[in-house]
Amino acid sequence: MHFTFIATLLVLCSYQLVAQPLNGTWTGALVSPANASASLQSSVVLRIAGQQLSGELRVQVADKQDLYVLKGTTNGTQGQGTATYPTDGSVFQFETALQQNQLLFAVGQNGTAILSGTLSRSPTTAAAKPNTATSPVGNDGLYRDPNLIGSWRTESNYGGGVTDGGFYGSTSSTMILRADGTFGDGGSAGYASGSGVSVQSSGKGNSALYAQLAAAGARWFTKGNLFYVRLKVNGQMQDVPSSKYYVENGKVLLTDLKTGKKMLYVKVN
């Protein structure tokens, strides 16, 4: 992989590169070399562990935000790897490098840059000490996608067909994902109607399940596009991958890693 954008800037400015961390959140505009007038607001989150690099690229296109999962390697002030689009599994390549505390970033395919630009470090990630209220990395050292923090409701509908005699209904439950990694029960609700009678109900949702998670010291966290749960199993803490996730426009799609079952949640606050 060889992007002209990154390679040229490194040749011209290599003497200005200083030892600065790649990790953090970077924001700015990425443009297409084929259409420089098309400027897309973007953000890149980079996480470094030794020489391994992971993170996310988010590109704002009109009222839609596209997410790409980054994975690769780093060598000091430079990095490269793959950028995967979870929606359809498309794989792109990316290159990145630091120049005077600015991030040079390019993503493309077959050696040709599709988007490239210079990004600035986000002030919220420059603090030396992590704070669970503002940082996606909690005091336990686990990364949590900020877009997942909040209350999420899932709903299922049934009935309504001719064979159901006009009977139909729906059930919903709400899951709370807190910034410290703990879970909360947002309650449940149900509605049924048929033959001129309608019934509504509400409750505590899966209170027994959330009680078991709390007893096991469960904490949720994310790696790339995977949702993990760290909890105590047989007296030992284990990190259990639960599902793939894709979040966009206040909705998150979870795909169970064992069964492949998909569940759609809508953010309620």
From TrEMBL:
It comes from Spirosoma profusum. It comes from the Bacteria. Residues 1-19 form the signal peptide. Keywords: Signal. This is Lipocalin-like domain-containing protein. The keyword Signal applies.
